[in-house]
Amino acid sequence: MPSITRPPGPKGHFLLGVLPEIREEDIKYATRVAREYGDIVFMRVVNIPTYLISHPRYIEEVLVTNYRNFIKAVYLRESRALFGDGLLTSDGDAWVRERRIGQRAFRHEHIDTYADTIVRFTERKLDQWEDGQTRDVHQEMMRLTLEIVARVLFGRELADELESAEHAISVYLDQFADRFGMYVVPEWIPTPANLRYRRAMRSLDGIIYDAIREGRRSNGDERSLLSAFLHAQRRYGIEMTDQQLRDEMATLFFTGHETTGLALTWTLFLLGENPAAEARLIDELDTALGDRPVTMADLRGLKYLDCVIKESLRLYPPAYGVVREALSDCEIGGYTVPKGSTVAMFQWVVHRDPRFFDNPDRFRPGRWEDGLFDRLPKFAYFPFGGGPRNCIGKDFAQFEIALVLATIMRRFRFRTVKGHRTWPLPSLTLRPEYGMRMELRSTVNSRQSTVNS
Ligand code: HEM
């Protein structure tokens, strides 16, 4: 018989619950609470009863064993202005249908044909960079991954539209962060912030609907994920409306660049702070590639590159938490989790747990070299989520990050600008709150001077 007692947890403010602490400490609050109270913690975030779950075994129960008892949580359901009923936010039959279509569209033979585009777009960006310049690497990586995802999704480059798309997504994320803080007036009240938000969403919709019209006109003949969706739905005899396609494209437009852009930003930051790891990576790339560009075929042999990316996704998982809502009472870790409660599982917390990772806060790519991945309990490391609702873009993301990173490190190294504050801000994703100002150093020059000396 399950116990009905509540797990331990912080008491919080009588009205706001633990919201003030979350606002104060951001993501680090979850780690502190998990270390203080244990693997299952109860807390109230304003009026939302929330269970913070930080043991791989319990996470597996929610995401795999008992996944049917959970739907996406209220925070995500409220993101419908951007995602509509796309894959990330939908539940039930609608999700099953879209996932089947999406999975077909993401089949390997479609996506790995984008490797050339990824390398070419990266080279084009690097051509604008110079030795000694200071750049906001976060902005640069977001723009690059946005350019790539636009090409992959719609089969063409969005030139002028990219700026408005970028702006719309930033406005959306600001709104999301405020909404999470519950400091926001309802969306229908025409405050300046809400009007800006509506304008931003309208302009993003305009860009996406134009691309859908173009894709339908060309009968999905160009190579793109949109046309793969159009073909896949035909195969299943399902007609997707423009609205459904819009929701799917908006979802992939966002998820397909925000997370990879962040993964690259945090990786460049970590390498900048760890010159020994950086030197080893550059050395591996030099030895394997000589002077030629990286290709898909090289990736399997670039073992240290893979370790660097794994370690970066461990320390700074761009999707830093997975959140669900219980459909009926269930038992987790001997406690009853009542229907309607929110269950939060933070990669940020579990990935830094000393029970699973030695010296967890240190960036040590080498820890992955001797088969750590296979030894870890399932869900001690889950940057792409897990179970039926795992990340549909996981393979694409992994090779995109690897190709971009390898291409960049062939030409540049990075150092954080002195005095620059680096702080991970949890919104829907984990963005660096103050950007990422870094100084660029050409590795081509240093390679030549080593050869000449
Ligand atoms: C480093 C890169 C990425 C990370 C860390 C990441 C992480 C995640 C995580 C943790 C989830 C599960 C969310 C949940 O269970 O609530 C997820 C779902 C999803 N991701 Fe990714 N993702 C990445 C890249 C991508 C890319 C490149 C795409 C598309 C091109 C994508 C599309 C999606 C979609 C559509 C879902 C929802 C899947 C579903 O519910 O069926 N992601 N991702």
Task: Please give a structural write-up.
With 453 residues, the protein is an alpha+beta fold. It has one domain (19-452): Orthogonal Bundle (Cytochrome p450), CATH 1.10.630.10. 53% of the residues lie in helices and 11% in strands. The protein contains 20 helices and twelve strands. The protein has helices spanning 19-25, 28-37, 56-65, 74-77, 80-83, 92-105, 108-111, 115-126, 137-154, 161-180, 192-217, 225-235, 242-273, 275-289, 296-299, 303-315, 347-350, 372-375, 394-409, 443-452; strands at residues 40-45, 48-53, 70-72, 134-136, 321-326, 330-332, 335-337, 342-346, 412-416, 424-426, 430-432, 437-442. It has a five-stranded mixed sheet with strand order 1-2-8-5-3, sandwiched between helices. Strand 6 (330-332) and strand 7 form a beta hairpin. Helix 8 runs antiparallel to helix 9 (137-154). The protein is globular, with a radius of gyration of 22 Å. The mean pLDDT is 89. Protoporphyrin IX containing FE binds next to helix 13 and helix 19.
